[in-house]
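QUALITY CONTROL LOG
STEP: pairwise intake check
CHECKER ROLE: data steward
CRITERIA: each record must contain a sequence immediately followed by its C-alpha cells, with no blank fields

ENTRY 1 OF 2
RESULT FIELD BELOW
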Amino acid sequence: MSSKRFKKLEKIDKTDSIDQILNLVKKNCTTKFDESIDLSFQINNKQKKSEVNIRTAVNLPCGTGKDVKVAVVCEEDKLKIAKDAGAEIVGSDDLIEKIKSGETNFEKLICTPSMMVKLSKLGKILGPKGLMPNPKLGTVSENISEAVKNAKSGQVEIRNDKDGNIGVSIGKKSFTDEDLIKNFQSILDTLDKEKGNNNIKGNLIKSCFITSTMGVSFKLKLDKSI
C-alpha cells in the first residue's frame, strides 16, 4: 500500500532525455535525507541474457556522494601506503584471519595479486557479500594507492544479473544536473565499450529508467543506441 507521501509524487507516462527528466526526479525527492539518483537498465530481449556477462568498474567523474569504507589486504611493507591513501582498515595475514572469522565491516576490499591467492579461499564469506576482489574491478592491484583512491572517489560497479538487469547510482539529489549528466554519460560510455569487448551484436540495452531512492521511476530516452 502506497504512503501519503508517495501518492503525492508527480508521475508522467512519457519517455524523455535525462536533462528533461532530472527536474521531475529531484522534485519527487521529498524525504528528509539526500536521496540517491539511480539508473536501471534492461538488456535487450534479443540478447541471450545468460550469456551476457558484463562486470566492470567505472570512475564517475563527479563521484557518488557516498563515503566508502575500504579495507586493504597487502604485504607488510605496503600497509603504510594503503593507510596513507585513505583505507580505513589495513592488514596482511592478520586481516585475512579476521575476515575468516566473519569480520567484514567494510564496503570495499582491495588486495595485491600475491595476497589474492590466500583471499580466494574465503569465497564463501566474501562472494555472497559482493566483496571478493576482482582484477576487472580494479580491486586486485599492485598499485594500492591508486586502487584505494579510486574506490574512495567515486568508483562504481556495473554488473548484469541473471535476469538481464543492471542497476547503478549516478549520485545524489544534492548534485547539480550537470554533474549527474556527466556521471550518466560516463556510464553509457562504459556500457558501449563493454558491448564491444563482449562482441555483442545488435543493441545491448532495451530500456533505461531513472528514479530516486524513495521516488517514482521514469523511462529515459538514450541519445544513441547501445
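ENTRY 2 OF 2
RESULT FIELD BELOW
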Amino acid sequence: MSSKRFKKLPEKTSELQTESIDKLLPVVKQNCTTKFDESVDLSFQINNKQKKNEINIRTVVNLPGGTGKKVKVAVVCEDSKTSEAKTAGADVVGGDDFIEKIKSGDLNFEKLICTPSMMIKLSKLGKVLGPKGLMPNPKLGSVTEDLKTAISDAKSGQVEIRNDKDGNIGVSIGKKSFSNDKLIKNFNAIVDTLEKEKSNNTVKGELIKSAFITSTMGVSYKIKLGKSI
C-alpha cells in the first residue's frame, strides 16, 4: 500500500520525453519530500551482450563533488607502513592479526586497501570478502604501495562502477543538498569514464542503451545524454 507521500509524486514518468541532466535535477529534488537528505542516483543500461564477447565493466571514478558519505577505510599492511596509513586517515589498520579478524567475519569497514606484499595472504579470504565486494583489486587502485593516495581517494568521493549480468549499472552522484553544479560535475565524470570504457572494449553500436535518474524515495526520469557514447 502506497504512502500519502508517494501518492503525491508524479505518475508515469517513464512516458515523458527524455531531458538533459540539468533540467531534470530540479524536478528530482522537488520530489525529495522525505525528512532525510536523499541520495541522487543514476541507473544505466549498457549494451553488454556483444556477438564476440560480453562487456563487463568494473572501474572506479573519483567524483569531483564527492559523495556526501563518510567511508570507513581499513588498511592491511606491513608494520613499517602502519604509521603512514594512520596519518593518511585510515580508520582501521593492521597486519596478520587484522587478517585473522577479517577471516572470522569481522568486516567493520566499507573499503579495504592492501599493500602488494600482504595481498598474498589476504587473497585467501575470497569467500569472506568477495561476496561483500570488499576484496582489494590492483586495477581499482586498492592494492598499492601508495597508501596515502588510495586512502584519500576512498574518503574524498571515489565510487565503483560495475555492471551486473543483465548490463545494469547503479551509482549515486551525491545528495539532494548538493548544488546542481556539483551533481552535474559528478554525472559528467561518470559519463566520461564510460566513454573510456567503450574505447577500451570492442563495442558494436552504442555502449549506453538508456540512463535514468531518481532520488532514494522518488520516481525515475529518463536522461537525454549530452553526447553519444
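INTAKE CHECK: passed for both entries
DESCRIPTIVE NOTE, ENTRY 2: The chain has a mean pLDDT of 89.
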